[in-house]
Amino acid sequence: MFKACLSSFMLLSLLLLSGCGVYLVHPQPGNNAQWKVVKYNDTLIYHLNNRKFKLDSVVNASNKQVYYGVDSFDFRWPASQLNPGINDVRLSFYSGGKKRQSAERLYMVSDVEPKQISIDDYELLSHDEAAFTQGLLWHNHQLYESTGLVGESTLRILNPQNGDLVNKQFLNDKIFAEGISFYGDKLVLLTWKDGLVYEFDGKLMEKSMHPYKQEGWGLTFDGKHLIASNGSNELLYLSNTYKIDSSFQVFNHRGAVSYLNELEYIEGKIWANVLGSDQVVVINPQTGKVELEIDAAACLDRYQYPNAGVLNGIAYNPNDKIVYLTGKNWPFIIVWRPSFFDNSNN
Ligand SMILES: [Ca+2]
User: Which of 2, 196, 325, 342 is least enclosed, having the fewest CB within 10 Å?
Assistant: First the structure.
């Protein structure tokens, strides 16, 4: 008797562990192995294998919400209940006195389809084609640039009127420099995989060095916090000791927007270029939704400049509402005053 009970218990445990007996019919698994993509107006449909007993109730494990009176072998659940981004959905299904469980990782996409715009009516500044640009910013009427590669990393000050080099400092030849941002009067520099963040003064003199326990990509400042990218679809709010305070996911109507790289905080939004493209996405930091996609591909003739790499520099002069864009080994810096700043009354 004990043996029989034990066997039943083991079988039930196995069923619970494997989620056997109930499965998600819709949405179908997509080509993303990490999660299933869900849209706001989708209905999630769970199907009960055992057709003997109808569902009595379903309990959402995350908020303990109970759904009664299902009276069906299927459970239909509006996807609008989910949060934007990744949702780990664990549901318990009760029928015929038994409990079955399901666990799904679902990705809720944005309900906003980003407006697509290209860059028009712009001017060009000269840019050092040897500069492997990793960060760009405007501060106190000067452009600051960081360039990468081990043994070649530099910090530079450029004249925003013509792009001329004003100051250039070679950095520790062991590090791979990444994004930069001013934080008060400190110029903060991330490194890619060196586990370090450096502080300089506005004249590019090194002041201090601190641990940074992750990959460094882009960096910007929203007036209160430093915001960093790490190559994923997450943006990180950093503390004043360069630890992660909080983070949020970035997504559009198709799914997660990964490879976020160089950043700039512009008029309440975060602009980020997407590694491997000439596209800049404009992100609402309150929601993580991409609201605008700016395509800079037409600005650079890659046949004429075959050595030009990816777009990787975004800076902003808030006084004159001018955006500066450049890339790794680009021959110029784009100087652009977007007309939509006038339309939004900013
Ligand atoms: Ca920047």
Answer: 2
